[in-house]
Give the backbone structure.
Amino acid sequence: MLNINDLHARVEDTAILHGLNLEVKPGEVHAIMGPNGAGKSTLGNVLAGRPGYEVTGGSVTYKGNDLLELEAEERARAGVFLAFQYPVEIPGVSNMEFLKASVDAIRTARGDDVMSSMDFIKLAREKCKAVDLPQDFLKRGVNEGFSGGEKKRNELLQMMLLEPSLCILDETDSGLDIDALQVVARGVNALRSPDRGIIVVTHYQRLLDYIVPDYVHVLAKGRIVKSGGRELALELEKHGYSWIDEEVA
Amino acid sequence: MSENIDQYLKSEYSAGWITDIESLTIPPGLNEDVIRLISAKKQEPEWMLEWRLKAYRAWLEMKEPEWAHVVYPKPDFQALSYYSSPKSMEDGPQSLDEVDPELLRTYEKLGIPVHEQEVLAGVAVDMVFDSVSVGTTFRQKLKDAGVIFCPISEAVHEYPELVKKYLGSVVPQKDNFYAALNSAVFSDGSFVYIPKGVRCPMELSTYFRINEAKTGQFERTLIIADEGSQVSYLEGCTAPMRDENQLHAAVVELVALDDADIKYSTVQNWYPGDAQGKGGIYNFVTKRGIAHNRSKISWTQVETGSAVTWKYPSCILKGDDSIGEFYSVALTSNYQQADTGTKMIHLGKNTRSTIIAKGISAKQSSNSYRGLVKMNPGAEGARNYTQCDSLLIGDKCGAHTFPYIESKNPTAVIEHEATTSKVSDDQLFLCQQRGIDAEKAVSMIVNGFCKDVFRELPMEFAVEAGKLLEVSLEGAVG
Ligand SMILES: Nc1ncnc2c1ncn2[C@@H]1O[C@H](COP(=O)(O)OP(=O)(O)O)[C@@H](O)[C@H]1O
Ligand SMILES: [Mg+2]
């Protein structure tokens, strides 16, 4: 479903991705690990079409089409979802209003009927429960005054409501205590399905105890430098990233 | 960020067409003869003419105010025409049926209910076209309730005692440069009187439209709510797109007698000029109300139009326990400049005032809030709460806050809160990543920002105001 081929990208004047290759098939869960500053978030942002991220080479196909051709909102409507590492606040716009607008836009693009407000509220409340967020978070401004963990759970809530085809989670586990981590893992596992691809960017192997990936990749200096199965994450934990640096060098 | 946002910010003014109608317009220029001519056209009694001339003589001695945070070439007052009337109005239509259909179509095109049978919410409408009122709906029904709602030019003839007593009682002729000019040359506007204890059976509204080129519009509105009465009044304004600036200098006076309640809402959408800052209305307005014992005056305004706005709807809280409110959304885009706010003058005991002002600036525009809260020595136990928020879209615009506080009573309490925020690229990207296009995202963010004010508008106008913001910001982001 996702084919990244020799991808080069820059942010402002800095080249960050230097020939990255990755293939994600439906049903697969890929974990991407790597040191700080390796380009993990850049990859997510490039895939989501964030303004300011310029692709300078290579290609990305998604469900057989050129993903890079699409505007950010078109990618979202085509089923690409990015759970942000640092979710922003939108004061004054209630979470409920925001979620409804989002779900409406995506359902409309898919050719589904727009949900009635009543049905939507019911659904949103249900999903709140699933991610362990109190319902009054629906009435608050988007991420307004949320703690770090609440913001991450709010990202997950959005993902569950939108039911995307390709989920990219950018360090959704960072800064979470073990209980919250399990909530996130449960949510992601619930979304695992034969027609959905999932990319989990993480810094810590402990998340992979709960979300067991099919593949683990190491991203360093703008490229995937090593790929393997679940065991690669354990090795990384044991030896640290310097071990990779030595191997690649 | 501004680059993204800018590409979506284009100016679309949907009320910018011109009605092709024959007008009688007095040649440009201002002197006593012109004032006599205006007065004669309206067949005014002598006292009215004298009142005008007194204002004119005062105006000659006055200087244009320069303290506002706006920059514009000063109008050439001798190049303006001070009176313009659709020719078909010359003999004065006796009822709506006699009004020129072309004129009525103008209002219909603006979405204003002009035929009584079509009116949804039961809103009575007075339509002011250039310098004259062209029709007022529901007059009979209002009359049955004892409510007077008519053009002020007519009130001068029909209700001279009320006009004499109250005209200029809140905004004196010499109040300020533009108020004096208005007092000298005002042509039409609405007059409302709600008798004792009457709750006005419907919303009253006036739609002002400037059509003629090179004319000024100087309307004058006077609303008197007698003891224990209640009224909600709405004004709307539009003008064609023209390259030259047009002057609009209105005066609105509200009188709330004991226990009365006046709610005055404005949706101001005068032509703002084009994306290069050419053309647009100069909107220099004096609005003030006086609140007697236990009465309440509430101003709500949504200001999206005009090239330059200079406007401070104010309350003089004269009576004990009286209440003043000011809820405002002012949006500026392109090269628009707004300097707007309010004055709350607390004279009576236990008077209370609330100010909620929301300024939204986009593109190269400048948006200033200017507000005065004054507690006089007699204002025992008075309170004010002011909240003043600015939202910036892009990084070439400006927002400014000029709060003035004068307290001469130690028991009075004044609270002031102010915030400034920005619509950021990150917020827009979050919305886009969730499938929401940037335009919708901006309108959602802006509407969220304005919620506290929209809540104060009559229902059907709240929806309209939301739409208006959307149009004014059309294409606001990327
Ligand atoms: N907006 C930006 N402007 C310039 N450099 C950036 C920007 N965003 C990220 N970078 C740089 O790009 C590199 C990769 O960043 P990022 O993708 O966030 O790494 P990771 O998520 O793997 O920690 C870092 O060196 C970072 O400083
Ligand atoms: Mg990162």
In short: The first strand of chain A starts at residue 2 and ends at 11. Chain A has a mean pLDDT of 93. The interface with chain B takes residues 48-52, 71-73, 75-77, 81-82, 84, 87-94, 97-98, 101-102, 105-106, 109, 141-142, 158, 162 of chain A (CB under 8 Å).
